[in-house]
Amino acid sequence: MANTATSLSSCGAPAVHFNRSSENLAAAPPAKQKAKYKERGNVLAEDQIVQMSKQLETFKSNLEEFASKHKQEIRKNSQFRVQFQEMCSTIGVDPLASGKGFWSEMLGVGDFYYELGVQIIEVCLALKHRNGGLITLDELHHRVLKGRGKYAQDVSQDDLMRAIKKLKVMGNGFGMIPVGGSYLVQSVPAELNMDHTVVLQLAEKKGYVTVSEIKDSLKWEKERACHVLDHLLKEGLAWLDSQAAEEAQYWLPALFAELTSRDVTPEEANQMTP
Amino acid sequence: MDRFSWSNGLLEINETLVIQQRGIRLYDGDDKAKLDSGVALLSTHRLIWRDVKNHECCIAMPLSQIVFFEEQAAGIGKSAKIIIHLHATPANKETGPYQHSKYSFIKLSFKEHGQIEFHRRLTEEMTQKRWESTPASQPIPTATGSQTGRTRAVGIVGIERKIEEKRKETDKNISEAFEDLSKLMVKAKEMVELSRSIANKIKDKQGNITEDETIRFKSYLLSMGIADPVTRETHGSGTHYHMQLAKQLGDMLQVPLEERGGMMALTEVYCLVNRARGMELLSPEDLVNACKVFESLKLPLSGVMVVQLQSHSEEEMISSALDNVSDKGSLTAEEFAKLLGLSVLLSKERLLLAEKMGHLCTDDSVEGLRFYPNLF
């Protein structure tokens, strides 16, 4: 039988030209068809799936061996975790995608980050009445560590950021805004555009900002500055000190956390809003 | 780089080591310095750098020289860096590797990572400025120093040696772990490539792949953590695992949902479920995919994802919201939340939805958003 009519296309998949030979081929019973494809050194998807299943089993046992030797390393060493994550990302694997994944089950990375996610959500929720849902990464780190207690394993800021990245999947406005060398973590779906972000960055140095400062540094008109500041007030991200010496000051509780001597209760916070 | 002075690298009496990091290359401004592989040590008083090959090559700079610093993210083929901006050179600075520099900043390039913690600790030290309150004693005299000077130096060298030994030990463990990890990654990469080949074939509809085989394939992808854009189109993100999970969640969330006005934000659900499990926690994606199975996942206005009881239809919720608002004349999201036992976020969502439907209108002031029945 003439098999000149069939040829391999550049990607290796068989390209069947429609002519008499191919009709013969098509008419052959499925088993023979499969065999003919195999002859040409091309593997079918079904066979590849079987192959993958076998490779998966091998991989699983390799991972188990790795885990038995090095699980502690991942647990104790945040640098190693960073390297591990970056290697995974380079090859196109997300070890945190599912709790049912091998990485999670055998290395325990999943539980580590998912629990961290819970702790992050809880800290953000507890402080939302005070800072409107915006918190510095440093403060978040500090409070998460405090909540975890003395004997829990250490958590780096890189760990926090990866956990937050995962939380984004659930909507709810989790995000990170670069500010002054670190980040602000947003945990509410308040709309913050470039203007808001830039004002936050300006306020970072002193914890507050005034309309004049915005006009001077950013060269905006008064209306634009007031519009942005009003939005921040409304979202609970800024507090207004209208009794400040020269000019009203807009304070961002997210930024002056270190200066406060005690935590404000929700009732007190309600009394303070304008 | 002309702010650095030669140093013996020994810590002084009141000086404490804060953090050290290997694999640091120094930059004079934007130019690579010859000092390309060393350990950076941050103490309470100084920034010290020691060449990894030639330990005698050691330089230091007081932290008071630093104006501010910032991170520079890693790029392709480029390590992450910390850029440190410096004050002008003081007149009494001792000699160092550079007589003069046209730059007033340096960079630390973290070829072996560690930039995040280093940055963090540097931030702490620059905030606390411990060098101001505990001035280090006279610098340890060098070769011509007094007897006591030498004794002091030996004691500290002993401590530093211990730190060095421990670091070497840790490094050895880590190198081994890294080697094993790299081998593992090579195998994982093969699987990724194989899965891509399969996915392409499925996409091009080549061969006879059964439903069953596709579902099996999806579970392999799940195990490996490989993203699945191809079969997701035809089969959704669910696997058997997610369907099981969905049933469990359905049972588990019935009561909590009823207690909270029929709706819960997905992040609330995440915390509730994972706190209850204690171990073998769910990933955020697991939760999202499981909820999608039930089609009980809603995405109201502002992108907040919520889980909703089947029994609560949208019309019911809106008309009851309208009743509540009418009863009280007007309501803010906080007041509505208290009334229903909902979270403030979700109560706002519900009121906004009612507004969108034209049943409510709002008064938007700096004091907040207040909802009124729409009489127009």
Automatic annotation (TrEMBL), chain A:
Recorded GO CC terms: ESCRT II complex
One Pfam family linked to the record: EAP30
Entry keyword annotation includes Transferase: no
Domain of life: Eukaryota
The keyword Cytoplasm appears for this protein: yes
A biological-process GO annotation: protein transport to vacuole involved in ubiquitin-dependent protein catabolic process via the multivesicular body sorting pathway
InterPro entries: ESCRT-2_cplx_Snf8 (IPR016689), Snf8/Vps36 (IPR040608), WH-like_DNA-bd_sf (IPR036388), WH_DNA-bd_sf (IPR036390)
Main location: cytoplasm
Classification via Gene3D superfamilies: 6.10.140.180, Winged helix-like DNA-binding domain superfamily/Winged helix DNA-binding domain
Keywords: Coiled coil, Cytoplasm, Protein transport, Transport
Localization terms from the record: Cytoplasm
Description of how the protein assembles with itself and partners: Component of the endosomal sorting complex required for transport II (ESCRT-II).
Function, as annotated: Component of the endosomal sorting complex required for transport II (ESCRT-II), which is required for multivesicular body (MVB) formation and sorting of endosomal cargo proteins into MVBs.
Entry's family note: Belongs to the SNF8 family.
Protein's name in the database: Vacuolar-sorting protein SNF8
UniProt lineage: Eukaryota, Metazoa, Chordata, Craniata, Vertebrata
UniProtKB/TrEMBL annotation, chain B:
Domain of life of the source: Eukaryota
Positions of transmembrane segments: none
UniProt subcellular location: Cytoplasm; Endosome
InterPro entries: GLUE_dom, PH-like_dom_sf, Snf8/Vps36, Vps36, WH-like_DNA-bd_sf, WH_DNA-bd_sf
One Pfam family cited in the UniProt record for this chain: EAP30
Sequence similarity: Belongs to the VPS36 family.
GO biological process, one term: protein transport to vacuole involved in ubiquitin-dependent protein catabolic process via the multivesicular body sorting pathway
Name assigned to this protein: Vacuolar protein-sorting-associated protein 36
Keyword entries, A-Z: Coiled coil, Cytoplasm, Endosome, Protein transport, Transport
